[in-house]
Write a structure and sequence with these properties.
Length: 201
């Protein structure tokens, strides 16, 4: 049985890139996948949330069936950029063991170009699992870097989402699980995630 830390990063990654997921209306998602970059209509002044967990994205977008989330994108970004965002991120909620007090946390959150939430990972039926998955929110400088510097490729994986969903609905869980992206522990250190309350055993 595979051991998963309570708050660890699992992702599809190579030596130089990591894949994260987002879902958009077709007006954003289709041109992004076609051109390999986000279109002008993508707002760089708004916070955008990226998720290394395919199944958490499926939970969030309802397998690409929710309104304005019909196009599911796999966005391959540089590990250098992803690591930068983690280093400059602040936990999205106050944690007494990590922050001196609420005022210090609020001050850090205002300054941070990225923020982190740890949400229950999901199984193929989208039920919560006993360990958590990273959500990374990017704003300001981080959002601009994500769109204009870190993005290596953008792929429309909506057909894959629909295929896996159909197999789950048909009761063929084993085949559905074989089609999932091969997410594995992302190489980082407990110290690198300590300010985010991550990588606990």
């Amino acid at each position: 049985m595979t051991h998963h830390p309570q708050r660890g990063i699992r992702a599809l990654h190579t030596d130089t890139t990591v894949t994260v997921y987002q879902a958009y209306a077709p007006s954003i998602g289709v041109p992004a996948a076609r051109d390999g970059r986000f279109p002008p209509a993508w707002k760089r002044d708004r916070m955008t949330w990226i998720k290394p967990s395919f199944l958490w994205m499926m939970y969030r977008c309802g397998w690409g069936l929710k309104q304005d989330q019909e196009t599911v994108l796999a966005v391959e970004i540089t590990r250098e950029g992803f690591d930068w965002a983690l280093r400059h991120a602040c936990l999205s909620h106050y944690a007494p063991g990590l922050h001196t007090d609420q005022a210090a946390w609020k001050s850090a959150l205002r300054r941070a170009p990225a923020r982190v939430q740890w949400d229950p990972e999901r199984d193929v039926h989208l039920n919560p699992l006993p360990y958590r998955s990273l959500q990374l929110g990017l704003a300001g400088e981080a959002a601009g870097r994500y769109a204009d510097e870190w993005t290596v490729s953008v792929t429309d994986v909506t057909p894959l989402a629909h295929q896996i969903h159909a197999l789950v609905r048909a009761g063929d869980t084993a085949t559905a699980e074989r089609l999932l992206p091969k997410e594995r522990a992302y190489p980082t250190t407990p110290r690198a995630l300590a300010h985010l309350g991550g990588a606990t055993a």
